[in-house]
Amino acid sequence: MSATGGAQAAAAAAESAPVEATGTFRGSGFGKEPTALSDFLARFDHKVIPYVLISPFFILFTAFGLYPLFYNGVVSFQNWTGFTNQGWIGFTNYSRVFGDAGFWRALGNTFGIFLLSTVPQLLLALILAALLNRRLRAQNFFRVGILLPYVTPIVASTLIFAQVFGRDHGIINSFLGNFGIHHTTPSGGFNGIDWRNTSLSSWTAIATMVNWKWIGYNALLYLSAMQSIPKDVYEAAALDGAGAWKQLWKITVPMIRPMVLFTVVLSTIGGLQLFTEPMLFEQNAQAATGGTHGQWQTVAQLIYKTGWKVGDLSYAAAMSWVMFFIIVILAGFNALIANRLGGGGR
Amino acid sequence: MTQSVVAQSKGAAAEHVAAAPGAPPPLKRAKAAYLGRSPQDTPASIWNYVFLVVAILGSAFPIYWMFVISSGTDATLAHIPPDIVPKSFANLQHNVQVVLGMTSDTATGRTYSAADFSNAFVNSVLVTAIVTAGMLFFCSLAGFAFAKLRFKGRDPLMVIVLLTLTIPNQLGVVALYIVMVRLHWQEQLISVIVPALVSAFGVFYMRQFIQDSVPDELVESARVDGASTFRVYWNLVLPIVRPALGVLGLLTAVGTWNEFQWALITLGAGPNPTIGVALSKLASGNYVNYRIVISGSLLATLPLILLLFAAGKQIVKGIMEGALKA
Q1: Does the N-terminal or the C-terminal CB of chain B have fewer CB atoms within 10 Å?
Q2: pTM listed for this prediction
Q3: Which residues of chain B does A307 touch, with a Cβ-Cβ cutoff of 8 Å?
Q4: ipTM greater than cut 0.90
Q5: Which residues of B touch A241 (CB under 8 A)?
Q6: Which CA distances in Å does B239 have to A142, A162, B193?
Q7: Are A68 and B172 a contacting pair at CB < 8 A?
């Protein structure tokens, strides 16, 4: 409520500003003595208006970003049934999380998918960026073209990938069948792999979707960093006779280390909150079970299921906080590792 | 200026290519001359182009595949091996009309109502338009204040904005949902609009742009002439930063149109889904027809593909510039 009030106040103040503007303009333009009112308005304009201009961000962010994160912590120490708080229960929800095999399984799945998606994603993005970092014809065509996945809604792309990875009619299995990869089951046989059946195969399918989505975007991030490397660095390197591949790993990558760190942190934060792909990979897209044995259920999915399918909001809140700390620690850890790898001489 | 540079580099590239088909020695000499150059001054080799074309084909394939499935029938969907070319335009038209609720499916006799998909499309257009407009207004206001106005606590407040960039606030969804329930906003579009109206990235991006492109003297002289702060923003700053507004607007529109997780949580059970939520509903339950689901996916993707065609250069620019600044 306070947020809307604030926003309205800000909007009202903003609206009144032009009126006051014409007032002061006339006052000074015609060389009249400043009146008490115009003086007040001018001081108001200098002292207060700046805060009015930045207030929408702070009000909205506090109300719908910071406060929920904090309140999430409060709820996690309480016992809620539906939308009513039944009272404080201390660390009960947290000890439940640590003893919950389902949570650990989801965490394992999340990390599995995360590794299979982040490592190839960033490596391929680097190579793609290096390919783009040349004097190219149709430069814009290539740069825009690799953004097709970025603009495609994840829901839509996941639904089509769910077809592509289909067991019986998917094009990937049809392709694998050409190489003799074939399964026979009691009920008959099929070409290729039953992608949804095991952990590793389902992680691979989901990781493929994530890689597809983000390689081009990350390549542009790397490209922008590559183009700001001073050119004379390469002149010096040429004396040693470094070829293109060697140049990439010995000069370009170390020079764009800050950007690599940035993408590592970004993909850690994004990858560990993975939700849409595992959700829609499922035959029943809103079930949030992540396969018959939860073999690809991620933590974000489990939180959704616990909070909105089971209706245990405070337990879902506790899981969110555990996940929050894991992400913060891991993002820091990954940044450290990436820093070391880039900094240490090869 | 930039035009001439492009023309020049194009000319140089043509020279190189022209030299290439000739005798091998000049090619070798050219290669040696390029060795000391930075990668972006080195003309791309043929393999470079081959790999890039492969990357583009890979990027486009799933979208092409949507098109293939949407233009087929249930029978073509079950073909082994799958058909790899679009079947017929008439099928595509029919499938699209079915998912939009304009006609019933001849194959299954099923009718989809407007509530299944069409309304969601309209909802997504509405949400995207409002969020984008709000984002541009609020972020440029704040960016202007941080870039050009002097006030107490400006620098610490800017640091706070930057710090909020790193918070994974998706993890507060449980409490955010409780907040929405208290406001009686759950299941209403306002619940996905209001939290998305500002972003730390937007404020930061606009601040950088305004700092670099609006001269202090211009602001000062307008002030001396008696223009109020808001008038300076409206009449002076906004026209100058129009390119940045375009970029931020495009990135915001793409992000808003594609948002799914929060929309599913707050709108999933209600009568006002966004397009992603509607698609997930079509793909759930006991009866799912993938030909229809994929036709819907194609419709959901199409506006963004058109946006990419129309303004791809700006989107690329936004991503690359934003990255350098952040």
Answers
A1: N
A2: 0.85
A3: 173-174, 177, 265
A4: no
A5: 35
A6: 31, 46, 26
A7: yes
